[in-house]
Design goal:
heterodimer; A: alpha/beta; Rossmann fold; 4-stranded antiparallel sheet; B: mainly alpha; ATP binding (chain A); AAA+_ATPase (chain A); ABC_transporter-like_ATP-bd (chain A); ATP-binding (chain A); ABC_transporter-like_CS (chain A)
Amino acid sequence: MMEAHKVGYRVRNRTLLDNVSFSVQPGEFWAIVGANGAGKSTLIKMLSAENAPSSGSIAFFDQDLKKYRLKDLARKRAVLAQQNVISLSFTVQEIVLMGRYPFYESEPAHRDLAIVDICLKKVGIADLKNRMYPTLSGGEQQRVQVARALAQIWEVENGLLLLDEPTTGMDLLHQFQTFQLARELTTRGFSVVAVVHDLNQALQYADKVLMLKDGQCYAIGSPEEVLTERFIKAAFGLSVQIIRHDSAAFPIIVPHAMPVRETIS
Amino acid sequence: MISETIRKVPAMQPTSQERLALPSSLGRMVWILGILLLGCIAFSVCIGALSISLKELWEIVASQLGIIQKTNVEEQKSIVFWVIRLPRVCLAVLIGAALGIAGASLQGLFRNPIADATLIGVTSGASLFAIFVLMLNVKYFSMLNELAGVYSISFVAFVGAALTTLLVYQLSKIAGDGGVTTLLLCGIAINAFVGAITGLMTYLADDQQLRSITFWNLGSLGGATWTSVLAVAPFVAISVLFMPYLSKALNLLVLGESQAASLGVNLKSLKQKVIILATMGVGASVAVAGTIGFVGLIVPHIIRTTFGPNHKTLIIGSALSGAIVLTLADTISRTIVAPSELPIGILTSLLGTPFFIYILWEQKRKRL
């Protein structure tokens, strides 16, 4: 449904992204991993049409992304950005309802309000519905934003969800629930492309992993192929060990245990 | 919760209709502020050197509309009402609405609670051009008079407001990435520049000109006639009618520029629409009444604190309460030092400041 073809992005002779190609199929969960500054957010911004690629092209449903009007894109895909600061006292319900704005003219239909309620339940914040957004904790605010993005594509056939670090600030349970939710969406034909920091979560939930290093596509493929000890060492500069344990359903990535030296001082 | 399968929205039973309604204070607010505005209008037209009682007011209006045939009210009161008071109150309502709506929408566009129409250069531009006319009137006034009649200053001030705003807007496109922050900074820069030229002209002015300039800068509705009301009305009407349609986009802008874009907001066109509508209303207002400060800044804050931050209620509410505030301020300005008049700009700032501080204090108290 979305195809990036040799996408590159340059700002004032600095190449932030170069020659990245991949193709997202309906029902796939793509995890983008990489060190800080590797170009993950830049890539998400281009996939969401916020920035146009300086080279290469992105096709969305077989049409060039540049040819879409913002309004039409808003009815096909939702984006969750990294920074979501809101200082005005909107209620949680009002914020999530904003995800429905592309679908109604002046007043929300009954259906839109019902979708808001369902999305609030889905991320487990139905009880926060009438709270003021600025009074919530960071993790709660992030869940409101997830609900907002969810409400936007709730009724879309083969919708696309672009997430830039969706679990920032969330506690363990809600990180788990958010990834479960993303997985659940993919079974319904949605595609999810997410910047993921926790490699274990990428390993556990993603269908495909795109590993970026210095703006280049360093590795691409299934989680088992990409998230190997050698690749992770190369992309992140950290030696890791991949442990398989009989009691865990997935292999676990842990940094090589090094004794903390007392000679630092 | 998670294990439950995601389904399409189930058909809703009629009983859940009520529960799902979006809590909205729009209807309640329009009623409250509407009645309050009518009360203020009635109060304002009745009070003055020649006071009119409510009963007399009713008879004056009713006899004009042909509801009652004859009235015992003196002819003089009827004339004062129709020729002096009513146009002045109408002008106050129009200008108040324009200032309120421009303040609300610009605060939304800039995502900044200290924004108002002065920021995009409307006010300073109008002032500069008006003072220009006052200074050059000896030589060119007659020429201008032929062009625009007695309203030559208003005409030129409106042109000045539009040109300065255009300059700010174009400069923000050249100087920066076209984001609203650049627009805000360009507004501040151009304001300072225009202010400096205004200051230079004030420095060069003689005593008579200085008096006119000061009067203009402090604002007054004293020149209200039906002609000026009719001249301002279409501009304000367009602003008031079309601005509420932008409220959804302004709400989305609260999420941030890029998030708003991902929800279908075309920032460039939104920016143009808000600026054009705000400039039309405020430019026309400043042109006939001079600069009236603080209303555009403070009124949206009152509405936001009382009725919530949704731009639909905020924009409509700011128009209504802007009208209320200016009607009251004008009533005070023409009665407090009667038979003379206090410039309205002095009053709005004098009364506005303590009230504004109170709102800030209230907001802090609510948060704790």
